[in-house]
Amino acid sequence: MLISIIAAMDEKRGIGFENRLPWNLPDDLRHFKTTTLGHHLIMGRKTYLSLGRPLPKRTNIILSQNPSYNPQTDVIIAHSLGEALLIAQNNKETEVFITGGASIYRQSLPLANRLYLTLVHTQTKADAFFPQINPHNWVEEHSTYHPADKNHAFPFTIKSLKKT
Predict the structure, then answer these.
(1) Are 143 and 119 in contact (CB under 8 A)?
(2) pLDDT(18) > 90
C-alpha cells in the first residue's frame, strides 16, 4: 500500500491559521478531490473538525488520542497512526492519503512513499506548518503551475514527488 501525503503550503511551509486554510484555491481543492476520491484519508481530529463533515466517497479515518472521542458520524476513529494505516491496509487500500494537520504530517513523513504538494506562491499568517522535507529523499514526478486569476488570489504549483 502506498502511503501518500497531500498538502498545500505557502512559501514558509504554512498550512493553516486558526484551524483554517489561509487561502481559497478552487482548482487546488478540485485536485485534492480528484486525487483522493475513492481512497482512505487519515487526518487528525482538528483537521476533521475544521472540515465540518466527512469527505464524501472516501473512507475518513480520524486520529484522536481521546479514547472516548465519538463524532457520531460516518467516520472511523483510530488512536495511532499505525492503527489507522492497519485499518486502510486491512480494507485492501492501494494508496492511503495523509491529509493533516501538522502533527500528523510530522509523524507520517518518514513513512510516506509519495507527496502531493501544492506550493502557494505567497506568505500568509500561519500557526501550523508542514515539516521540513529533505530534498535528497524525493524526486519530482510532475509539476503544474497555476497563475493567479479571478478565482485564485495567489499563483500556485502542484507537484507530485516520489521517495528515492
Answers:
(1) no
(2) yes
